[in-house]
Amino acid sequence: MVRLRLRRIGLRGQPTYRIVAADKEAPRDGRFLEIVGVYNPRTEPATIKLDEKRIYSWMKHGAQPTESVEKIFKTAGTLERFERYKNGESVDVLVEEAAAAEAKRAAPAKTRK
After folding, report:
1. At what angle do helices 78-86 and 67-76 cross, to 10 degrees?
2. CA–CA distance, 24 with 40 (Å, rounded to integer)
3. Cβ-based burial of 22 (10 A; exposed 0-12, middle 13-18, buried ≥19)
4. Is residue 30 helix, strand or coil?
5. Pairwise pLDDT comparison (49 vs 104), residue with the higher score
6. Which of 66, 84, 87, 101 could link 5 by a cystine bridge, Cβ 3.0 to 4.6 Å?
7. CA 78, CA 55: separation in Å to the nearest integer?
8. Rounded to whole angstroms, how far apart are CA atoms 68 and 65?
9. What are the domain boundaries of the chain?
10. Cα dihedral sign for 89, 52, 46, 73?
11. How many CA atoms lie within 13 A of 73 on its CB side?
12. What is the mean pLDDT of residues 17-37?
């Protein structure tokens, strides 16, 4: 089973995460199938960059997000747009909407120490 989950990168005490599609049995920082986003909790507000087209593709084929990734998707509005995608709305319209939401969310980021 494929899971959408966080993969930790960055220095000790300075975590940044990649959101990856990986096999359920693979280790946290081990082998993965594809990078579908980046999450940096150390900025104010947290930086979230997602490739929604690929996320929709993985979820359409049965990939399940972990609890932490699901919270990130809810914050970004991805789960709501995925439901609309399942109901037949065009991917291109949803991706454009996601880009507009990301631009609005991307306020000047201040890194926490």
Report:
1. 90
2. 23
3. buried
4. coil
5. 49
6. 66
7. 9
8. 8
9. 2-108
10. positive
11. 24
12. 88
Side chain identity, residue 13: G
Q: Which among 101, 102, 94 is positioned nearest to 39, based on CA atoms?
A: 102
SS3 at position 4: strand
One-letter amino acid identity for 41? Answer: P
> CB-based contacts of 8: which residues, under 8 Å, 6+ apart?
15, 16, 17, 28, 29
Residue with tokens 């319209």: 93
Q: 78-86 and 91-105 helices cross at what angle (nearest 10)?
A: 170
Of the candidate CATH numbers 3.30.70.890, 3.30.1320.10, 1.10.3720.10, 3.30.300.20, the domain formed by 2-108 belongs to: 3.30.1320.10
Residue written as tokens 């507000």?
A: 45
